[in-house]
Amino acid sequence: MVPQPHVDACPQHPTLVPDLAFSVGLFARPAVLPRCPADRLEDWSPGARIGEGGGSEVFAGTCPWDGRPVAIKLLRPELSRRRSLRRAFDQEARIPNLLRCPGMPAILHSGETEGGQRWLVMPLIQGVQLGEILAQPHGDTDALRATVALLRQVARTVGSAHRGGVVHCDLKPANVLVEGGLRAWVVDWGLARVAGASVPGFQAGTVTGTVGWMSPEQARGDEDAVGPASDIWAIGCMLWTLLHGEPPHVHPDPIIALRRTVRARPLGEPPPHLDTVYRGLWRILARCLQPRPEDRFADGTVLADVLQRWLVRTEREGHRPVGSLRQPGRTRWMGVTLPSMASAAALAG
């Protein structure tokens, strides 16, 4: 075995230990994998557009050497001139293959067109975004447990990244793809932070993430406080959505949503009408949504273990949960009843 050099943990976040891969140039250019017979975008046979976001479009394609379906992501041409977005896209092309975490799709290839447009290729995941599953009513323990099992997978994936020195920083249901209803894939690592460094191209104090899912420290632009606990907050928002049917902090006005996130207060005890199944899950999400990062779970691996224990306990108890928190048209946010608000997906778009 080749001896590995000693690497100190990040002083702000002790659970973050930079992976050796980052010492060999995570941010070095070019953003392509070793050369293969498919270096050109055209080699991957781009076809129909199957998705789009604020900064990129996704097209169906075909792998040139085995014919399997792939997804081709292209940075929008009008955004390719922005250095921060180019560097984030390059980072997204590198991180999955450097970390090789379960639940993180590999990047098959990446490159740049003659016109300067960045692109990357990953396996085509046949499934739905996690948000569609979180929005569904869960009338029995089995349905609830199945969704919590997916969130445990998300926590395990980002936990592996945390212990490899990376924080996702844009974790949300739209960035989790669920294949066959059973397997969760965490995608879109372009805004990720590496231990001891910020994303190249972004100025200090820049607010990065998605309104409604970002943590209070992200909403404040407090780079020194951003760490694994920031991803824990996002998973807490997903747990909240699972129980309430909608996210906790969204608002049609993103400035108000940011202000509510920054001013978030600790959650109290579970509502008295909930049974032990819901009360246990409430206590987990309440820990995830602590305003101070140091009061949340240390990283995704710790949270995944806690969710696993909840799954084992509820399987043993085996009864229907009592006391829904879903109320049409209204939600509870940090102990205050508020009118129903717009979805995070609308804000993210």
Q: What can you see in these coordinates?
A:
The chain is α+β, with helices and mostly antiparallel strands. The protein has two domains: 85 residues, Phosphorylase Kinase, domain 1 (2-Layer Sandwich); 222 residues, Orthogonal Bundle (Transferase(Phosphotransferase), domain 1). Helices cover 32% and strands 15% of the residues. It is built from nine helices and twelve strands. It has a five-stranded antiparallel β-sheet with strand order 1-2-3-5-4, covered by helices on one side. The protein has a three-stranded antiparallel β-sheet with strand order 6-8-9. Helix 3 runs antiparallel to helix 5, helix 3 packs antiparallel against helix 8 and helix 7 packs antiparallel against helix 8.
**Count of alpha and pi helical runs:** 9
How many domains, as an integer? 2
General shape? globular
Q: Specify the CATH class of the largest domain.
A: Mainly Alpha
Distance between the termini: 48 Å
Structural topology:
Elements: E1 49-52, E2 56-62, E3 69-75, H1 83-99, E4 109-112, E5 118-123, E6 127-129, H2 130-134, H3 141-162, E7 166-167, E8 176-179, E9 183-186, E10 193-194, H4 216-220, H5 228-244, H6 254-262, H7 276-288, H8 300-317, E11 330-333, E12 336-339, H9 344-348
Helix pairs in contact: 3-5, 3-8, 5-7, 7-8
List keywords for this structure.
three-stranded antiparallel beta sheet, Transferase(Phosphotransferase), domain 1, alpha+beta, 12 strands, 32% helix, disordered N terminus, Phosphorylase Kinase, domain 1, 349 residues, 2 domains, five-stranded antiparallel beta sheet, disordered C terminus
